[in-house]
Design goal:
Elements: H1 2-23, E1 42-47, E2 53-59, E3 68-72, H2 79-86, E4 94-98, H3 117-130, E5 136-141, H4 143-152, E6 158-164, H5 170-177, H6 184-199, H7 208-211, E7 219-224, H8 233-241, E8 248-253, H9 265-276
Parallel strand pairs: 3-4, 3-5, 5-6, 6-7, 7-8
Antiparallel strand pairs: 1-2, 2-4
Helix pairs in contact: 1-6, 3-4, 5-6
Length: 277
């Protein structure tokens, strides 16, 4: 009886702890801004439908009347984390970067790892519309890539998406959080239960894989077979989900860790947006 009680306590504590640190990871705020890299920019903010103020940067291109690309960071990073990697896009496009809810300098008591972050991207698109910008491209990494895919299915303003190292569905990621044979299944179930109880979220519905099945806009999926954070199986699931999208492209590489850029990265991204945006 004592052993059974101890096992139950273990599962409850381990799953609650995993849930808590997932939605409230340590905050990371970069000490870099576009001016440090020689770019003019505006500090901007906009409000989500659930009342959170998100903070970001708008970096205008030097060329007038150009298109705009929204850049979405990963988890649990912030907008400054991706800035140095993507400034090359500013040669031809306006750039909008912002911090997802809770992360970086944005408001919020917790992250939902994609469940409500789609509302953050919708808020960014509404902000751009207020500036007269009606069509955008989106580049997203990891969490940002998942949010881009899920939002694109519901946002006609999004004309092209680059999604790098995205998960296929949040339920699958919950199981992969605990790399413990057999035990990972009850722990993942409990995390799903806590999400429903405390946040009102069914993580089975947080699924880029499902969202892209009927999407027809150009999409570029980037992933490494050696990704140690979001396994390559997620990319294969997304590829299968996009099988009917004739404008979907896939760039799968080897020997790169999560977030590492391979050879010809800049050219591949530039060529994709030049062709489709």
């Amino acid at each position: 009886m004592i052993i059974l009680f101890a096992i139950i306590l273990f599962f409850l504590f381990a799953s609650l702890f995993g849930f808590y640190i997932s939605i409230r990871p340590p905050k990371f705020i970069s000490d870099i801004n576009p001016k440090d890299l020689g770019f003019d920019y505006e500090e901007v903010s906009f409000v989500t439908k659930d009342g959170l103020t998100l903070r970001g940067w708008f970096i205008p291109a030097k060329t007038q009347k150009v298109k705009t690309i929204i850049l979405l960071h990963g988890y649990p990073a912030d907008k400054g984390n991706i800035l140095p990697l993507l400034t090359f896009l500013n040669q031809k496009y306006n750039l909008l970067l912002f911090d997802f809810r809770y992360l970086g300098q944005s408001d919020g008591k917790y992250s939902t790892i994609g469940a409500k972050e789609t509302e953050d991207l919708f808020a960014a698109i509404r902000y751009l519309r207020s500036r007269g910008i009606e069509e955008v491209g989106v580049w997203g990494f990891s969490l940002g890539g998942a949010v881009a895919l899920m939002t694109a299915a519901q946002s006609p303003e999004i004309k092209a998406v680059v999604s790098e190292s995205s998960y296929a569905n949040l339920d699958l990621m919950a199981r992969q959080l605990y790399n413990i044979p057999v035990l990972k299944y009850p722990l993942a179930y409990l995390i799903s239960l806590w999400a429903k109880i405390f946040l009102g979220i069914d993580i089975k519905n947080i699924s880029p894989e499902k969202s892209v099945q009927n999407i027809t806009i150009p999409i570029l999926i980037i992933h490494s077979s050696n990704d140690e954070v979001i396994p390559f199986s997620n990319a294969l699931r997304l590829k299968q989900a996009l099988k009917n999208n004739l404008r979907a492209e896939f760039w799968f590489q080897e020997n790169l860790v999560h977030g590492e850029l391979g050879d010809k990265y800049q050219k591949r991204i530039e060529d994709f947006f030049k062709k489709h945006l």
